[in-house]
Amino acid sequence: MNWTPENYYFTKLNSAELPELIHFYLVTVQEHYKLDEYSKEDYDIDYKSLIGEDSAFFDQSIYYVLRSKTNNAIHASIRITYWDKEICLPIQKLFGIKTKDLLVPEVDNFWHIGRFVISGKIIGNRINILKKMLFDAFYGPYSLGNGLIIAECDRKVVNTLRKLEIESYQLGDPIIYFYSETLPIYIKSQWLETFIKKNKISQCSTGNDKDIQKFIAMSKDMLLDSKNN
To answer: Which domain of life is it from (predicted)?
Structure first.
């Protein structure tokens, strides 16, 4: 399948489409790592875990996906979540990192990024897809400022981010998670400046500004809840 702009379109996911996303994510991982022994039981266990996680995150998240114009199938995805500092993040479960260790001083907005995957069936200009997905996910945290983006990130992705001039801080030793070497990292929103400015003209859309308004509303609601409590 060759890449042409006419073949795909970028959109957002609604809650009813979460099962489709999780299935895409698991199948893509299986195909990428050629997991011939990945059984239905393995799939069911992973599916139950991920669908539970994403259901808990959904209301505080925006999911960006790339779909085929031919059959509307998902071919790429990424999720950005505004973290309320209460929901347990995957990084805490996987690496034993405590909430207090993530609450960096003088940071107002905390985020979690996940479900970042691009189908191997796209064999054309994958770098432009990658940049678009990252731009959409990072634009809100960068625009709101004083932010910290937390992630469990494949080492190859960390290296790719560095090539795009996005630095990250490693919080601990890597583990094997979903068949890849995975690092616990965070990215400060100011570290995104070079990437955002380089790609703003080509990647920014009116939808990005609407997404920022959603996150502003979330941050105000969480601030109000913390004062009431």
So the answer is: Bacteria
CA end-to-end span of the chain:
53
Q: What is the pLDDT of residue 3?
A: 54
For residues 13 and 65, the answer to whether their CB atoms sit within 8 Å is yes
Identify any residues that bridge with 65 across adjacent strands, giving them in sequence order. 11, 77
For 180, the enclosing helix (H) or strand (E) is strand 180-188
Question: Helix crossing, 193-203 with 126-144: angle to 10°?
Answer: 120
Angle at the Cα of 147 from the Cα atoms of 134 and 144, rounded to 5 degrees: 80
10-residue mean pLDDT profile of the chain (229 residues): values are 71 97 94 81 94 95 95 96 93 93 90 95 85 95 95 94 96 89 96 95 88 87 65
CA angle (85 as vertex; 81, 89 as ends), nearest 5: 60
Sign of CA dihedral 6, 8, 13, 19: positive
How many other β-carbons are positioned within 10 Å of the β-carbon of residue 37? 5
Tell me the pLDDT tens digit for each residue of 82-138: 999 999 999 999 999 999 889 988 898 999 999 999 998 887 778 899 999 999 999
Counting runs of H as helices and runs of E as strands, what totals does the chain give? 8, 8
pTM for this model (two decimals): 0.92
Quick one: 156 exposed, middle or buried, by C-beta within 10 A (0-12, 13-18, 19+)? exposed
Residues, the chain: 229
